[in-house]
Amino acid sequence: MRRWLIVLGILLTIAVAGGALAVYSFNRSGKFRVVGGSPSNKSTNVPPENTITLVFSQDLDTNQAQTFLQTSPSQLFVMELQKNKLVLTPAKPLQEKSQYLISINNIRSTQGQQTSTSILFTTGVNNSPRAQFIRLLPFSGSDFNIFYNENLDGFTVQISTKSMDQAKAQALQYFRDNNVDPNKQRIDFQQLRYLQGKGAPPPN
Fold first, then answer.
1. What is the per-residue burial (b if ≥16 Cβ within 10 Å, else e) of 135-166?
2. Rg, the chain, Cα only
3. pLDDT truncated to tens, each residue of the chain (204 aa)?
4. 99-108 β-sheet, strand order
5. Which residues have a Cβ under 8 Å from the Cβ of 36 and sit 6 or more positions away?
6. d(CA 204, CA 189)
């Protein structure tokens, strides 16, 4: 099994009046073809954090270049070839209530055959504990504040007391209380310093 982290380029944008459908365009010209996968045909409300899986009729060639995959809009995925399965895991959750087109062009099997397919689907609302936690932000407490940085897909914790270690522990517990593992998050801790007297910062 080979794992690649790739940035998928923009192929094209498709709008479907009255909503979007998930569509598999199977190439059945040869024995090597798509025989299943998730999301299913005509899917809507696909959870943005879900993996995307395609099942093929033959095992996949793990030595082929990863250029067979394109998406619109551009999205970062971790890609795995697991015998006869192609598994795409979003590096971060997809945008909510958005259309995604994933195209696979001339993917090759271990028997040397090639096939192509495309998937069009619409995401729903992300109801994961992390997504629900982000909706609560910004959070302002007596000793710390928490903000979400969408560009970095991470969090900033501002400590507003001299007791850095104690406030940091409280902030991490706040993540846990909301069912979010802080050890799996990107968290930037900042200690606020206030001017006193003639502009001098408080002593450490």
1. eeeebeeebbbbebeeeeeebbbbbbeeeeee
2. 23
3. 445 444 444 333 333 333 333 444 444 445 899 999 999 767 999 999 999 999 999 999 999 988 899 999 998 899 999 999 999 999 888 999 999 999 999 999 999 999 999 999 999 999 999 999 999 999 999 999 999 998 888 999 999 887 899 999 999 999 999 999 999 999 999 988 754 444 445 544
4. 23-24, 114-122, 99-108, 69-72
5. 54, 55
6. 16
